[in-house]
Protein 1
Amino acid sequence: MVYSLWYRIALPTLVAVVSIGIWQTLSATGVLNPVTFPSPLAIAGAFGKLVTRGYFWDATWITLSETLLGFAIGATSGLVIGALTGTFRTFRMAFYPWVVAFQNTPRVALAPIFLTWFGFGITSKVVMAAVICFFPVVINTVAGIAGVDENAKTLFRTLGATKTQTFFRLTLPGASAVAFAGIKTALTLALLGAIVGEFVGASEGLGVLIKELNFQLEVAMGFAVVLFLAAIGLALYGLIELIEKRLITWARD
């Protein structure tokens, strides 16, 4: 338990501290140009200024709303389609090739299309976030269902279990660990989808704020927003991982 805590928290923190120290040293010695690559101290100072401005938190709320709404839609539909695809052979033969085809499509290129269809408001960003996180959930759910032990399925049939009982008592629990891996990936991708949508066309959000700061040559503040987004992504990932450990107790290390 102690080693696990060290491995998961202290060791990554140590790596971050050492990396920041090297970064600050390179900046202080002039190896890095402070105009184009500001030091950690400069970024921290810029972030301190940002958090005192109301528009920063308004932009954060907009981006988080787009991310979470898109994730809810994309992950839910991905779980449903994945369960149907993994369970029913006819459904899999009819739809899974299209899922694979769209998975290999550069979904970032869809952002301008969604902008045309849904406008500059929040809807186009929610759709972008939903689409970009849909496929990992589908593919992992299908893989999880396919990985359920065939001997266990045979045992359930021998004991007279119905297909519904087998699905909810064997298939769903057996596939949940792999499906959750897709859900964790999907949540971080949903944040990426929201930011991409804001880059392409929006009037508010953290993506818009990054663009505006770059136009104003506020590089340190731009870095601060990017690192803040990374922190949001880590927090969301950690939240899903915590939920996974609470729900899937049998999959704990």
Protein 2
Amino acid sequence: MSIHYDLYENPPQEEDGKETQTLHARVVPSGTYTTKDFVERVAALHHLPHAQLIGAIDAITDELQTLLARGYIVEFGDLGHFSLSLSVAREITDRKEIRSPSVRLKNIHLKVKKTFKKELNARMNLERVSSPTRSSHGTDEGRCRQLLLEFLEQHPCINRADYCRLVGVNKMCALRHLNSFIKAGIIRKYGSGKSVVYIRG
């Protein structure tokens, strides 16, 4: 079975007066395995008693909490190791001001071993799909181009925020459209930074 993924826009970066748009990949989840589902799967595939698996998970969870609470880093087989990070309740500039009640748990970290990542990567079969949670509203560039040209017949220029409102897309999609229109010679970019506007090409 493949891992489904989709590509999403990163925030635009400006370099030498030009805005560039890069993409990142994100997993489209196949669903969620609950503890009950997970135990039933392991019990069935590895022929282990269901009740013993439940007991083992409860015991491991309890001991993990106990050891972390005592300040230990806890290794967990080939998966990796667990550790804690702390935070201070308020900004402190003098070490003498810090008291135990003002220091608290910030997070629990799992650092996965390289061997686990390598073995997981070897099992993965990736397939790109369109995420069902993404909106496709307003992504027809032909329709958006027509609305833009009609707008520029009545106005001397348009900025990205106005374009978003005009065609009903988000900032990332707007930037992709506008860059495409620039390459096609439909519009030209004028200005830099927050003062950028687009005029007819």
